[in-house]
Amino acid sequence: DYFNAHNELFQATSYKDSIFNEQKVSIINQFKYDEISRQNKILKDENNLQSQLIAEQQKISNAIILICFLLVLSLFLIYRVLRIRSKNNKRLSKKKEQIEYQNKLIEDANMALEYQVEERTTRLKKSNERLIEYSLFNSHKIRGPLARLLGLTYLSTISEKEELPNYIELINNSAKELDAMIKEAGNDLSEDIQSNEPID
Predict the structure, then answer these.
(1) Three-state SS for 199?
(2) How far is CA 137 from the centre of its chain?
(3) By CB atoms within 10 Å of each CB, which of 14, 150, 195, 199 scores lowest?
(4) Could you tell me where the DSSP H helices lie in the chain?
(5) Could you say which DSSP state residue 198 is in?
(6) Which residues of 12-44 are buried (b: 16+ CB within 10 A; e: fewer)?
(7) CA dist 88 to 74, 78, 91, Å?
(8) Measured between alpha carbons, how far is 180 from 82 in angstroms, rounded to an integer?
(9) 162: which DSSP letter?
(10) Are 162 and 133 in contact (CB under 8 A)?
(11) How far is it, in rounded angstroms, from Cα 96 to Cα 29?
């Protein structure tokens, strides 16, 4: 009986241990499954987090690329504007130099023209003064022969016929003298005008 009881106890203990072991294995398996599920969830969360980080990094990279592109474009536009401004400044500088040169030429031409006008005015004044002098001088110079000619003409009208040839000869001499003086005065006046004529 004791032996049987011992065997039954051993079998019962073994059965109990086997049931316990099964439950233990089941608990362990469940724990392992839960642990695997938890690790999978952690890995999934880590993957989602990494995906989010990668997406954020991609957005940041795209933003940096866009900023760099805009910066390069801005620098290029600034360079173009500065280059165009430099060309315009050079063009304006050349035009300014041309205008200054033309103004200088105009100023020189005006000065030369003023000098010519002054010179011609001076020559005209001198010519007018000489004309006045000649007119006064020649009127006195010619007045004598002309007065003699008039006197002789009058005397010839009131004299005798015998004296008429003498008066005619004297009138002829006075007329020749008057003609010579008029020619001389005209030649002197022409020479003086030519010598004082303005040169273009």
Answers:
(1) coil
(2) 65
(3) 199
(4) 2-158, 164-195
(5) P
(6) eeeeeeeeeeeeeeeeeeeeeeeeeeeeeeeee
(7) 21, 15, 5
(8) 87
(9) T
(10) no
(11) 97
131-186 pLDDT, tens digit each: 777 777 666 777 777 787 788 787 777 777 777 788 788 888 888 887 887 787 77
Nearest Cα neighbor of 134 from 88, 196, 76, 90 is 196
Q: Which two tokens stand for residue 74?
A: 């801005």
For residue 1, give the 3-state DSSP assignment: coil
Per-residue pLDDT of 84-133, as tens digits, reads: 999 999 999 999 999 999 999 999 999 999 998 998 888 888 878 877 77
Residue with tokens 């938890």, as numbered in its chain: 38
Instruction: Kindly state the tokens that stand for 172.
Output: 């002829």
Dist CA 123 CA 119 (whole Å): 6
Contact in structure between 134 and 185 (CB atoms under 8 Å): yes
**Residue-level length of the chain:** 200
Q: Is the distance from CB of 193 to CB of 127 less than 8 angstroms?
A: yes
Query: CA angle, corner 48, sides to 44 and 50, nearest 5?
Result: 115
